[in-house]
Design brief:
heterodimer; A: Rossmann fold; globular; B: alpha/beta; 5-stranded mixed β-sheet; 13 helices; 16 strands; about 20% strand
């Protein structure tokens, strides 16, 4: 690794939030580190980024970890707040959102679709712990089919956004997102490189990052809180795009890169308004 | 000063711009659509931004985002959209984000009658979100000109109290055409009693001080002040914390910053023929109060000792106007009786409190005078409202 963990932590994170408030063995810290390391490798500073978070494990545990300005929205609404903020903040300020799968793909999906439609410059890191774990472990909208959770004791049998050839990223692509990728938490520096590209895209970027939940998900699905089991379970179900097997749930890598191919929200809104002021028309 | 024959929506738009509003987000809904349209026309001309949202919930959240970025922001809707504000409203209260929310009342529940006036959100403007532990400020204008004044005042109060402030109008005020004067410079604004408070930026680190003080700058993102805000109970620095003591401090601030500074807005009311201890006090707000005022003046000419109390500052409810033991009549644009409950609570014990409700249409002057007469003669009211509870 290019930078030591302690150096990254002391530069970018608030000491008050170290160690993490996540459960022992939780994979969220791996995702979090991937994002902060990408920021470090891009040479961005604390003042360059406004950090937003959501409700649930991923949002709560990452809120106020960033040393700079940070906000947490109500459940599923952080994308709408970020869109308002995007209009007002200078375009060079980055907005990074660390959210959960329930927040992004359930309650907040419509708002996220509209953020993608408008190509608002923000990087959404969807930390997918396979369901609603902070409420005890209920299935979400990308939970692999068949999984036993507190609300699917016989196995999750609903059609969802990752079943039957469906992929939630297709929805986001259709909505106009300009950068889409997926990595599991164990993808390490490969994921760091992807997140760097996501941040550099001047537009709406989303990286879907499934991570292991040894506490609630693993205890129901695997009958074990032994971390190595759930880490292996996720690893077995992920494969780089093009190398998928019949077990693959998560095809990893850059899924859609149309970086900088569409006008960015802040810029085209302000440019258009400026033109209206000058000429009275668009 | 420029004069126009225009709608309340026009007056609100011009008022918002005078108050420094440069961001509006809304979702089309009758009868607030024309306000959104006027904003989409005017804001680009003054360097502002109009954004249509995917729903009212997103509209108010985008306003929150703009306000968090340091811009004065406003949204507007009617009852069915106001209900979708519940989520962001709570966030803005908790994070102490200045915002102005306009609700143009129509006939409910749900979609009801879209193009007719109603006053069904009296309590909803007091409790616009869940959870309790907060106060709200609500202003209710009764004319297009007053819409402008109260919109400007709402922005002023929202900055000083750093919270969302709502303006409760109705379909007749926002859609109706009236004579409107728009000030053209600061001197004229001052002359008209308009107050403007600039947006400031909290420097940190104690973003949420445990105090009832006002005039604390709001939390603004993007200035690298290490600002924090969230939906959770905040520490003074803005970290999330799950402790009752911390939440008590937070809630105390949200409640008492308003209650302890009511003098800033408690002068917003109107009294007609109230100087000689009238035997009947007619209480109302918004459009019906215009008919009430006419009826009271005519009733006086007929020798009836009635007075009119028009509330403009609805919340916190101005109990001080109800210290006299008298007969009261609450005139409202709903059939269930909402304002009357507060009158009953605030009036001295055993006061006689009556109700006259219409909805979708205004009461008429003869109807009102007839009701005044019956109440003053201790005759039973046999018509309308919850006097029909024998049903």
């Amino acid at each position: 690794m290019k930078y030591s963990s302690s150096e990254i932590a002391s530069t970018y994170l608030r000491p008050r939030k170290i160690p993490s408030t996540a459960c022992s063995g939780c994979g969220l810290g791996m995702n979090h580190k991937i994002v902060v390391q990408a920021i470090r490798e891009l040479g961005l500073e604390v003042a360059d980024i406004v950090w937003g978070t959501s409700i649930g494990c991923a949002g709560r545990q990452t809120f106020a970890t960033w040393k700079g300005d940070g906000f947490a929205g109500t459940h599923g609404r952080v994308y709408a707040i970020a869109r308002g903020l995007r209009i007002v903040l200078p375009p060079e300020k980055k907005i990074i959102l660390t959210v959960g799968d329930g927040d992004a793909f359930g309650i907040g999906l419509m708002h996220m679709i509209h953020a993608a439609r408008s190509n608002a410059d923000m990087t959404v890191i969807v930390n997918d712990n396979l369901g609603y774990q902070s409420t005890g472990g209920q299935y979400g909208w990308t939970t692999p089919q068949g999984s036993r959770t507190d609300s699917s004791p016989y196995g999750m049998f609903e059609h969802n956004l990752m079943s039957e050839g469906m992929d939630v990223l297709k929805i986001m692509k259709g909505a106009g997102a300009t950068f889409l990728a997926r990595h599991v938490a164990m993808d390490g520096t490969w994921a760091v490189d992807t997140v760097k590209k996501a941040i550099l895209n001047k537009g709406f970027s989303l990286v879907h990052m499934p991570y292991p939940c040894p506490t609630n998900f693993a205890s129901r699905e695997l009958g074990s809180r032994n971390q190595v089991n759930i880490y292996r379970w996720i690893k077995e179900r992920s494969a780089p795009i093009g190398q998928e097997t019949e077990n693959t749930v998560w095809a990893t890598g850059i899924w859609h890169d149309a970086s900088n191919s569409r006008p960015e929200f802040h810029e085209y809104v302000h440019e258009t308004l400026e033109k209206i002021r000058r000429t009275g028309t668009i | 000063m420029k004069r126009f024959l225009e709608t309340g929506n026009f007056a609100i738009t011009e008022g918002a711009i005078l108050a420094g509003c440069r961001f509006f987000s809304g979702y089309p809904i009758t009868p607030a659509t024309e306000l959104a349209e006027a904003m989409s026309h005017r804001l680009p001309q003054v360097g502002g931004v109009y954004l249509q949202a995917e729903d009212e919930c997103a509209a108010m959240h985008m306003c929150i985002g703009a306000s968090l970025g340091g811009m004065k922001a406003m949204t507007a809707t009617s009852g069915p959209g106001f209900i979708l504000y519940a989520d962001p409203y709570g966030w803005a209260i908790g994070c102490e984000t200045p915002l102005v929310v306009l609700n143009s009342g129509r006939v409910g529940p749900v979609s009801g009658i879209t193009g007719a006036p109603g006053q069904g959100e009296f309590y909803l403007t007091r409790y616009p979100t869940q959870g309790g532990n907060y106060e709200t400020i609500c202003l209710a204008p009764c004319s297009a000109q007053e819409c402008m004044a109260m919109t400007i005042e709402a922005f002023y109060l929202s900055e000083r109290f750093r919270m969302p402030v709502s303006v409760l109008a109705d379909q007749l005020i926002t859609d109706g055409f009236e004579d409107i004067s728009v000030p053209e410079n600061e001197a004229e604004m001052k002359e008209m009693g308009f107050r403007v408070w600039p947006r400031k930026v909290h420097p940190g680190p104690d973003f949420y001080p445990a105090t009832d003080a006002i005039d604390i700058p709001p939390v603004v993102m993007g200035h690298n002040t290490r600002a924090l805000c969230s939906d959770w109970t905040p520490t003074e620095e803005g970290y999330d914390i799950e402790e009752v003591e911390a939440h008590h401090k937070h809630a105390y601030r949200l409640i008492y910053k308003v209650r302890n500074h009511r003098d800033l807005f408690s002068h917003h009311y109107e009294k007609v023929h109230m100087g000689d201890d009238p035997d009947l006090i007619v209480v109302s707000y918004g459009t019906p109060s215009r008919v009430v005022n006419t009826a009271v003046k005519r009733a006086r000419a007929q020798g009836l000792k009635v007075g009119a109390l028009r509330l403009i500052n609805l919340w916190p409810f101005p109990d001080e106007h109800f210290s006299r033991k008298s007969k009261y009549l609450s005139v409202e644009l709903n059939w269930d009786g909402q304002l009357i409950r507060e009158v009953q609570r605030a009036a001295p014990k055993d006061s006689e409190v009556h109700f006259l409700g219409t909805c979708g249409d205004l009461p008429t002057v003869p109807d009102l005078i007839e009701t005044f007469e019956k109440i003053l003669k201790n005759e039973p009211l046999t018509r309308r409202g919850w006097e029909l509870e024998a049903w």
